[in-house]
Amino acid sequence: MPDSSSPRVTGPPGGPAATELLRSLAPMLTRWLPRQRWFAGKGRPLDGLTLSAATELLPCAGAGPGLLHLLLEARQAETVDCYQLLLGVRPVMPPPLAPTLIGRPARGPLRGLAVYDAVPDERLTGVLLERLRTPGRLGALRFTREPGCALPGGLRARPLRAEQSNSSIVYGDTFILKLFRRVSPGVNPDLELPLALARTGCDRVPAPVAWFEASAADPLTLGVLQPYLTGSSDGWRLALHALHRRADFTGAAHALGRATAEVHTALAAALPTSVLRGEPLAALAEDMAGRLKLACDAVPQLRPYRAGLREAYAAVEELARAGEGHPVQRIHGDLHLGQVLRTATAGRGRGRGRDGGWSLIDFEGEPAKRLDERRRPQPVLQDVAGMLRSFDYAACQDGAGDFARSWAQANRDAFCAGYAAGGGTDPREHATLLRAYETDKAVYEVLYEAHHRPAWLPIPLAAIRRLAQAPQSPRRTAP
Known about the structure:
- By secondary structure, the chain is of the alpha+beta class.
- It has 3 domains: about 15-120; about 125-225, no CATH class; about 230-465, Alpha-Beta Complex (Aminoglycoside 3'-phosphotransferase, Chain: A, domain 2).
- The chain contains 13 helices and 18 strands.
- It has helices at about 15-30, 120-135, 190-200, 235-245, 250-270, 280-300, 305-320, 350-355, 370-375, 380-395, 400-420, 430-450, 460-465, and strands spanning about 50-60, 65-75, 80-90, 100-105, 115, 135-140, 140-145, 155-160, 165-170, 175-180, 180-185, 210-215, 220-225, 230-235, 275, 325-330, 340-345, 360.
- It has a 7-stranded antiparallel beta sheet. Strands 1, 2, 3, 4, 5 and 11 form a 6-stranded antiparallel beta sheet that branches. Strands 14-17-18 form a 3-stranded antiparallel beta sheet.
- Helix 7 (about 305-320) packs antiparallel against helix 12.
């Protein structure tokens, strides 16, 4: 523990130690935060920081490294986002960790010490695993483990580097811990939904082993530990590999559709469902039309197709006026080829062994949306549309030739057929609503690519041109 000459940096957020801690760290964090890939407010000035909680996971005084957990609110104009930070503290930085240095405070309880991002420090991230092995509370944090789950200690930690909105740490090729960087009050769907699926016996999603949260009246989910699917490959890489070899991928796409339907069926059994009809269905179309307007205002290339795209939403409004409805339930919320894994060998579960091992991961939903929006029941067609768009994106990595276009369409059809074989209705039987969701997704992609990857803008614009044409004979089925 810290000696008597070094004040602890834990305690109530408004306490003197915590206030002094924030004052000492604020100048360097103000520079460091906006440069992180997971920081949501890029391009806008950071107006201020507020410390919500500070907890020492390892003492931050002495010769050894310390580990400090912070929940920090960042204010930008009218927006306030809460971020989870894991900060290492050392008198001297080892050379391999030098790129993670945030700074050395000139004042406060950490004066003169090196403060750095602790996620790449395997010694410090190993502490998180040990905390998860021994459930209980520590300061503002509460650690929980699923009953009966074996969780060995001493597993080597290594961070995954291909992350954006979160950070992940793999322990000994056995477990993976996802750390949510931007956090909100309430249970994160990436904990809630896999737990619900595990308790139905669905083996398509790695079941949570342990997790931790900020203990409060409305807790914040901070991290989830799940089995690491060693030897798996994500669907995006597999699809690109098949495409570049001019190989058939429809069998894999069919199996993926089947796996997706199984997950949707299990979610519908585990959690409440409803039917969207009337005014709520019309409101869904109005929201899509509103997003189209904003995107057209921001991206001039989208404007020539505005009328045709608007017809896709008007057709949904027509369904609402006719009294037709569509089931809604909890869904993945951000499904694409990068959110699915296929193991090289058949898994234990009967479902995975049957089709080569497709699993769905990352149930957080779209990180840009509010947590309450991500937890709202939606038509399963939102997930289906996301996957269909992903096949188009993969095809465009190989150019826009005839083979790529036919490859994408064949796999879109195979996915839908597999979805029907897995217990869902064929998504193509709901052509009106599916077209609206595909259009909404493509509009989002146009806006994203225009702002972040302008060279990729032709990919969603190709879909926009197709979707702006009214379907020749849409099929509609009401429940």
